[in-house]
Structure formats: C-alpha cells, structure tokens
Amino acid sequence: MRPRVLLCATTTGYQLRMFDEAAARLGIDLRLASDRCGVLDDPWRDHAIPVRYHDVDSSLEALQANLGASSLSGVLAVGDRPTVLAARAARAFGVRWHPPEAAEISRNKIRLRERLADAGLPVPWFRVLPPEEPDASRLAPPYPCVVKPVILSASRGVIRADTAGELNEAVTRLRRILAAPDVRGLRDPDADVVLVEGFVPGSEHAVEGLMAAGRLHALAIFDKPDPLDGPFFEETIYITPSRVAAATQAAMLGAIQVAATAIGLTDGPVHAECRVHRGRVVVLEVAARSIGGLCARALAFTHEGFAIPFEELLLRHATGMDWQSWSRESRASGVMMIPIPAAGVYRGVDGEAASLAVPGVTSVQITAKTDQQLLPLPEGSTYLGFIFAGADEPGEVEAALRAAHSRLHFRIDRALTMA
Questions:
Q1: What are the start-end ranges of the E strands in 299-351?
Q2: With 60 as the cut, is the pLDDT of residue 313 above it?
Q3: Dihedrals φ, ψ of 103, to 5°?
Q4: Among positive and negative, which fits the CA dihedral 32, 37, 42, 46?
Q5: pLDDT-derived band of residue 123, with 50, 70 and 90 as boundaries?
Q6: How far apart are CA 355 and CA 352, in angstroms?
Q7: What kind and span of H or E run contains 148?
Q8: Three-state DSSP class for 36?
Q9: 176 CB burial (10 A radius; 0-12, 13-18, 19+)
Q10: What distance lies between CA 59 and its chain's CA centroid?
C-alpha cells in the first residue's frame, strides 16, 4: 500500500502542483483538504476534501469520514490557517507532526510572545489594544512602536508609529483593514484584536527548517537585504546563504531552537523570522509551516548529483523517507517578491524578456492578472510577481534580482482604485 499524505491548504496553484509532481515521483498517495474546493480543477483527479479552517472540529470529522480507517503516513500544511487542522488530523490518525496546542500558539502573536518571554528570550514590549478603545495613545507606549493585527500575515496591516498621532492613525487604518469583507470572511474570533509592540531595529532574516523529535534541523537562512524600518514592512528580497557572520547565524539558530521548544513544536516544518541588532537576536515568529507559494522555488536540495525541489524534501520528511542526506544546493539563490507601487488597476507589463536576460536570473513570473485591482501594503496582501536568480555568491544574486526588476515596467491605471 502506498504511503498516504494529507495536505491541508487554502489555495491552488504552483506549490500544490509541485507537491503533486513530487508525490508521483515518490509513489505517495497525496490527498488534499481545502476550504476553496469550489475553484479546484481537481489536479489529483480525485475530489478534494472540503473543510473550513474556522471550524476545526467539523473539518476533522470530514477528514475522518473521507479517509475512513485508512492510515496516514504524514500530514503537511500550506499557509498559516491550515496548521491547526493539520495538527489535529495528525493526532487523530496517529502520525508525527506538531502538537495542536503548539500550532495554535504559533498562530497567535500574543501567546507566542508570552511563551518566548517565559523561555527567557528577548521580546519587544507588547500590549493588546481593547476593541472599544478610541484613543490608542492612552497606552502611553515608548516610540517608535508597531501596530499589527493578530490574525493576518505577510505584513498586511503592520504599521510603524513614531508619535501619538501616528499611533492613532495607524490603529484607525488597521481597524478599517480588519473590517474588510475578506478578513471578516475568515470568521476568526481574534479578528478585532490589535497588538501594539515595540519596534525592533536591525537586519531581518528568515530561517527555514524541519523539526524532528524536537530538534531543529536548519535548511536555509535567508537574508532580507532591504531595510524593513517602516512605516510599512513589505518584504521584497530573500537571499540564501546568509552573509552574516557564522557566530551570528549560530545565535539565530540557537534562539529559534529555544523558541520552538518553548512553543512545543516537535515534528514538521518551521518558518521563523528574527531580527539581529548589535549581536542581539530577537525572534519575531516561529510558524508551524514551511515557506509558501512561489517563494519555495528559491530552494533546491541535492544528493549525489541529483536535485529535488523543496516540496519533495517535505514529503520525504512527512513519510519517514530519507531526507537528511539531502542538503541545500551549494550555489546562492534568491527571490524577489515584486511589490505593488500604488493602488489601481493592473493593465500589463513590459520588459519581461529583458528582465529574464539578466545573467543569473532563472525565472520571471508575473502573477498579477490584467484588469486586477491592486492595493499596496498595508491594505494589500499580494505581489505583482516573482523573480528568481542563482549565482555563485549571494551578492551576485541580489544584483541580478535588482537589475531584473529595474527592467520591468508595470502599467497600472492609478485613476481607478478599489471600490
């Protein structure tokens, strides 16, 4: 009987196709659970299991009814919201993964910071703003500070404030974002919760890893070379391997191991974010998931002359196949998430061929659709597309990504905005 893996996801697209192709190579029966089954084109030639991530109990019942008594070899989650259901499913079917309690903590910024502080890790000061509080400046916080939602990701709604006036403006703006129909549609009980915390200076980095029996196995450390100082915090470039000192890299991994242990993460992917300032590491996030979407294309793993994508490594780990023999490719790689410069309607792009011709650039993928209405951060949560590059050195990758981006010219009708 082929090993079976349950993949919990919220979207369709590139990464699910990569999981499907990797599963076929490995002889794995991949089953999809999704809350957007109405738009699936059934890439597995089998019906996806419909679930609702705001109702984990009924979704777990749906999984058990569809999968029956058949055993699972492992579970995986794509995105933040599916992690809790994946953890509940893993426990119900008796397979290794992160405990449900740990998955829940990793999704809640407040509980996460409490656990990190209890573990002795440095955390920014933080306060929860009551929904009924009209004047956020009554918190009398030190400035600069950062306003952020508890439930959203990808820096949506995250705003820096340097004065009391800016703080109130940021909170008002964030509350408008949280009142948007797409956010309300998540049916998250914490949709109205606003977190105010201290701004952490320094360089920002992302760590991709796998937990096995409570031990962190680092797969890649990404540098984010663009300064993320606000007022908004749009991520643009990820580059690996890191160019920071080996001692600093070790300090990052050590802090993330402590954080993962404090949260209770034990088996499965982790995606962590941290800042480093004057040798001090501040862990901002440790999520019970891997890097998602097209960004995962920046990672490839090799063994004895063969190369596999990141999705295959995750499936190997989930099913107990050999994964530790594989290591990230020796050359540097990176991705640019092309930011939206202004609100408006997308009309098209020029310069794709010129961008792809930049030495080191391996792919240019424009994901914006003609006539799509665009919103930049902090209101928006999407990108215009992605540029990928590889080279011998990280600096060469960064230069290639910036050069390729400079050759793209996006046509956005700024006279038209979201209704």
A1: 300-303, 306-309, 327-328, 332-338, 344-350
A2: yes
A3: -60, -40
A4: positive
A5: very high
A6: 5
A7: strand 145-149
A8: coil
A9: exposed
A10: 23
